[in-house]
């Protein structure tokens, strides 16, 4: 079972994470890194490979599908000429997975501003670009660790726009995609999904906002009528302590920070970003490029290791 790992932004900690992941997983599972080997930390053993040969290479060296990015890596300083190669590496990795040559995709962090400047990248992030490559209308972002799985219904938009963006259609699609993924990718036959209200105290019966009464309750009732095990809308401030988490398999939240604050508090280093709703498995470490520590040997591979392991687990679940 060979995973494919994309390089991410070369000026960030991606190359260091790839090398650290190889050192930690070389005897456990194979992955193929797509990137410029000149960007790897000095002394990293690597060897040219394909998805078919990566497993044989893995014990002795990092398997690399080498690409010439045309300029050396400058830690902390993104270069315009790297941008197109970063985007192409993602597209190439998706093609390998879709062709069945690799079992799952794990992506290292990109820097969206650098891609916008250097490659006219028009997508808000990885999730939307992967959905476009897959020809999928709607993809959903999940953050997962051993203790919690959370899904924000709205993602990278201003908080002031959330009430308008949180429609019945969006909430329904988000819950249905999450429900299907919990069954297919996580092996949970009857998922229990908790849904957080938008307002404090889930609106308190309409006294602190009407979104729960007018939108969320009718939407959740309709899904419950279809047989889904849905709890909510619940007050978000009481959803994430240990006893509450034991009562559900995943939490769907109204907006970005409502979902990400609890998981990053519970497991800051071990969280994994998972894209649901794609025809292939995709995970990513739940952190950014970390320009401030790039090239200093300080990168923590914990989230990358968790992302690679979860990708393998999800791919195995899909395979049956």
TrEMBL record:
Pathway it acts in? Answer: Cofactor biosynthesis; pyridoxine 5'-phosphate biosynthesis; pyridoxine 5'-phosphate from D-erythrose 4-phosphate: step 4/5
GO molecular function, one example? Answer: cobalt ion binding
Record's catalysed reaction(s): 4-(phosphooxy)-L-threonine + NAD(+) = 3-amino-2-oxopropyl phosphate + CO2 + NADH
Query: Subcellular location, in the record's words?
Result: Cytoplasm
Enzyme Commission number(s) of this protein: 1.1.1.262
Q: What is its main location?
A: cytoplasm
What is a single cellular component term in the Gene Ontology annotation? Answer: cytoplasm
Write out the residues that bind substrate.
126-127, 264, 273, 282
HAMAP family attached to this UniProt entry: PdxA (MF_00536)
Misc. remarks from the entry: The active site is located at the dimer interface.
Q: Which family does it belong to?
A: Belongs to the PdxA family.
- Name-wise, this protein is 4-hydroxythreonine-4-phosphate dehydrogenase
- This protein's species is Histidinibacterium lentulum
Phylogenetic lineage: Bacteria, Pseudomonadati, Pseudomonadota, Alphaproteobacteria, Rhodobacterales
What's the name of its gene?
pdxA
């Amino acid at each position: 079972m060979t995973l494919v790992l994309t390089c991410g932004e070369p000026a960030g900690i991606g190359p260091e994470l790839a090398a650290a992941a190889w050192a930690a997983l070389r005897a456990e599972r194979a992955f193929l890194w797509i990137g410029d080997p000149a960007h790897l930390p000095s002394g990293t053993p690597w060897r040219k490979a394909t998805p078919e040969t990566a497993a044989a290479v893995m014990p002795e060296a990092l398997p690399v599908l080498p690409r010439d990015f045309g300029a050396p890596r400058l830690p902390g300083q993104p270069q315009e000429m790297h941008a197109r190669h970063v985007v192409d590496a993602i597209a190439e990795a998706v093609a390998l997975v879709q062709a069945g040559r690799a079992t799952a995709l794990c992506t290292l962090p990109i820097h969206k501003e650098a891609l916008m400047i250097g490659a006219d990248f028009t997508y808000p992030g990885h999730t939307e670009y992967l959905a476009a490559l897959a020809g999928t209308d709607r993809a959903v972002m999940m953050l997962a660790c051993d203790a919690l799985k959370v899904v924000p219904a709205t993602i990278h938009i201003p908080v002031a726009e959330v009430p308008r963006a949180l429609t019945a259609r969006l909430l329904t699609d988000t819950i249905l995609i999450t429900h299907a993924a919990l069954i297919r990718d996580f092996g949970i036959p009857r998922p229990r999904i908790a849904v957080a209200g938008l307002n404090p105290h889930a609106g308190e019966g309409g006294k602190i906002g009407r979104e729960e009464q007018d939108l969320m309750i009718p939407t959740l009732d309709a899904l419950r009528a279809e047989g889904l095990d849905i709890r909510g809308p619940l007050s978000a401030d009481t959803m994430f302590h240990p006893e509450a988490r034991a009562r559900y398999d995943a939490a769907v939240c109204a907006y970005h920070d409502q979902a990400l604050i609890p998981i990053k508090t519970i497991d800051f280093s071990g969280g994994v970003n998972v894209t649901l709703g794609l025809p292939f498995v995709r995970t990513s470490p739940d952190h950014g490029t970390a320009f401030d520590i790039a090239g200093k040997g300080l990168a923590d591979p914990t989230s990358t290791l968790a992302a690679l392991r979860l990708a393998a687990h999800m791919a195995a679940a899909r395979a049956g």
